[in-house]
Write a structure and sequence with these properties.
The chain has 216 residues and is an alpha+beta fold. It folds into 2 domains: 100 residues, Lipocalin (Beta Barrel); 73 residues, no CATH class. The protein has 3 helices and 8 strands. Helix 1 packs across helix 2 and helix 1 crosses helix 3. The longest helix is centred in the C-terminal third of the chain and has 19 residues.
Length: 216
């Protein structure tokens, strides 16, 4: 049976992305994710890199011209530059990345493909429209990101990407016994949902979500 052929798509950076970042030849590649909004040739959003000293959440902006893109980002005192080219065969963006802190430079290669992350089936609109902008992005993302104090915790925040963040959050819920998961997770998730406000589909906003995982 012949392998499936990817449908051709126009070069665009709009949407959510995931991929890898390789810094140096003697270390395994790290991971990267991004949430970008494109308007005309302009692009802006966030780029999250998890790879040792290169880790951080960068605010990025740039331009797209045909199959070529240039993004400039910053994270504290660090500056990032990524020159990417669109590969229609793999439907991915790839190219050299440079991070600078003063006179120091870190060179690597960044590859991004469109994210297939899916969050929980129930409560997706509430999570994306209420929990994410009111609590997750302004509070949880201070620690649950690469370089943050809680970077080793199971729950990972992908700034600007509710689907990927919810997909991480739902792993804290036991689909076979959601009430048990509620009790064990309520200490951390209770304040989160209480701060976000009540959900129309939940009678107990002080408890962790009981959604089941979306099918693969």
């Amino acid at each position: 049976m012949a392998p499936p052929v990817l449908a051709r798509s126009a070069a665009s950076l709009d949407g959510t992305w995931g991929g890898t970042v390789a810094v140096g030849p003697r270390r395994p590649p790290g991971t990267a994710s991004s949430a970008l909004a494109q308007s005309g040739r302009g692009v802006k959003g966030s780029l999250t890199i998890d790879d040792g000293t290169a880790s951080g959440v960068f605010s990025v902006s740039g331009t797209l011209r045909g199959k070529h893109a240039l993004l400039i980002g910053k994270h504290g005192a660090r500056r990032l530059r990524w020159e990417a080219r669109y590969d229609p065969k793999t439907q991915s963006w790839r190219g050299p990345m440079v991070q600078r802190t003063g006179a120091a430079r870190l060179h690597g290669r960044l590859v991004l493909v469109r994210s297939q992350a899916r969050g929980p089936i129930c409560g997706a609109d509430y999570f994306a429209g209420v929990v994410m902008p009111r609590v997750i992005d302004p509070i949880c993302s201070l620690c649950h990101v690469p370089g943050g104090l809680a970077q080793a915790a199971p729950f990972k925040v992908t700034p600007g990407n509710p689907a990927a963040t919810a997909a991480s959050a739902v792993h804290e819920v036991n689909p076979a016994d959601p009430p048990l998961a509620d009790e064990t997770a309520s200490a951390s998730w209770g304040p989160t949902f209480a701060a976000a406000g009540p959900s129309p589909s939940r009678s107990r906003p002080d408890r962790a979500p009981t959604c089941r995982r979306s099918p693969a």
